[in-house]
Design goal:
single chain; about 425 residues; alpha/beta; UDP-n-acetylglucosamine1-carboxyvinyl-transferase, Chain; four-stranded mixed beta sheet; 14 helices; 24 strands; about 25% strand; binds ligand EPZ
């Protein structure tokens, strides 16, 4: 099994180009199901999750190819098996966002219920509530969700909020289904994440009529059909935030290109409160830290709040702060698999339910640690950059799901990471 062997502490310097957003690419690939024909997507990163999703589209009857210059072509002219098999769905929860498009275009779909994962229970009750509101008949059969709308979908007024606020992929599913429903749909408490904005912009380019984009209240006027599209996905704000923490935790300066600061105001505000400089310079963003790491309190919330997908990375950074920080996880209250691993590296983190108190320590000490989910893995790599000695991060396949060639891109700016077989 592959692991990273990381020498620390290191000092980083140089430029990194941020890739296209994984979490925009996945629902946008699903959206191509709504229109027969060949769509061309630009900026889709080369990740395991994208490969898995491409296999899913092919299992439905579609064709997915990546050209030499990195464009992803998705041909969904033929979709003759609207079934999301367990074998694929169990590997990636985002597969669930084929529900809406298949229902809209074919009037029937079977998708394996997604399982839980390292960051906690991952229900889809709100997805199903929204699709039922559009007129779908939905029932469970041997672990599969069966959704049928033989007479087509009908626009409705839908409240899509849940106990943790809005749902990103739930909004994606219901919005995609509503694009071809008869009449207008209102989605109240819609997710406002930049990736959902990107999906809505792509759908409108395909011929959908969505307004209120970026707000918690979306209006979708149903249309007869959508067209295949050429579209470029937005940069990955979570990858950008991860590299910003790499600069901050090592007390270095990095220059990031293809980075949209307007998508990351909560993150930038938090970095500046920690004592990290984040400045735009032409087409680049310069991130640097020279002084102490100041303690801050972080609460993860739906966008525009602090993103849960950067909680683990900031926990690694705050484990070295000059004082106590409090981290409250309000989106996935169990998302703390990285905590015990960071404590193995001499962090001083204590968990009380969804609240973690980080008593800052002077240094982290290298250790063998275990990656558990995508963002926890990133946090352990970041800790390894600054820990004294040789850190081994096991199970880096978790990392490859969401970061393209991370070790190569960090080594290019001064890290010392080797991918090894253990
Ligand atoms: C998306 O997951 C992202 N994944 C996640 O990123 C991200 O952490 C999450 O949004 C929150 O920002 C993709 O976009 C592929 P949710 P999603 O539905 O849509 C509860 C990463 O690291 N909920 O917004 O599945 C849910 O349990 C991944 O890139 C219900 O209760 O998340 C959670 O507590 C990890 N019922 C909260 O809502 C539902 O029907 C937010 O989940 C749906 C969700």
């Amino acid at each position: 099994m592959e692991a990273f062997r990381i020498e620390g502490p290191v000092h980083l310097s140089g430029s990194v180009r941020i890739n296209g957003a994984k979490n925009a690419s996945l629902p946008i690939i699903a959206a191509t199901i709504l229109a027969g024909g060949k769509s061309i997507l630009k900026g889709v990163p080369n990740l395991i999750d994208i490969e898995v999703f491409s296999k899913l589209i092919e299992s439905l009857g579609g064709k997915v190819e990546r050209s030499a210059d990195g464009l992803l072509s998705v041909d969904t002219t033929v979709i003759d098996k609207p079934v999301g098999e367990y074998e694929i769905v169990r590997r990636m929860r985002a597969s669930v966002c084929i529900l809406g498009p298949l229902l809209a275009r074919y009037g029937s779909v079977k998708v394996s219920m997604p399982g839980g994962c390292a960051i906690g229970d991952r229900p889809i009750d709100i997805h199903l509530r929204g699709l039922r509101a559009l007129g779908a008949k939905i029932y469970l059969e041997n672990g599969y969700i069966v959704a049928e709308s033989p007479n087509g979908l009908k626009g409705a007024e839908i409240f899509l909020g849940g106990p943790f606020g809005s749902t990103v992929l739930g909004t994606a599913n219901v919005m995609m289904a509503a694009t071809m429903a008869k009449g207008a749909t209102i989605i109240e408490s819609a997710a406002c994440e930049p990736e959902i904005v990107d999906l809505a912009m792509c759908l409108n380019k395909m011929g959908a009529k969505i307004s209120g984009i970026g707000s918690p209240r979306l209006k979708v006027e149903g249309v007869q059909e959508l067209e295949a599209v050429e579209y470029e996905v937005i940069p990955d704000r979570i990858e950008a935030g991860t590299f910003m923490v790499a600069a901050a935790v090592t007390g270095s300066e990095l220059r990031l290109s293809n980075c949209r600061l307007e998508d990351m105001m909560a993150v930038v505000d938090t970095l500046r409160n920690i004592g990290v400089s984040v400045e735009s310079a032409g087409q680049e963003v310069i991130v640097s830290r020279r002084g102490a790491i100041k303690p801050v309190d972080i609460t993860t919330l739906p966008y525009p709040g602090f993103p849960t997908d950067l909680q683990a990375q900031f926990m690694a950074l705050l484990s070295l702060a000059d004082g106590n920080s409090i981290i409250i996880e309000k989106v996935f209250p169990d998302r703390f698999m990285h905590l015990a691993e960071l404590n193995r590296m001499a962090a001083n983190l204590r968990k009380e339910g969804p609240v973690v108190i980080s008593a800052g320590v002077d240094k982290l000490i290298a250790a063998q640690v275990m990656a558990s989910d995508l963002r926890a893995s990133a946090a352990l790599v970041l800790a390894g950059l600054v820990a004294e000695g040789t850190t081994i991060v096991n199970r880096v396949y978790h990392l490859d799901r969401g970061y393209e060639r991370l070790e190569e891109r960090l080594n290019k700016v001064g890290a010392k990471i080797a991918r090894v077989d253990i």
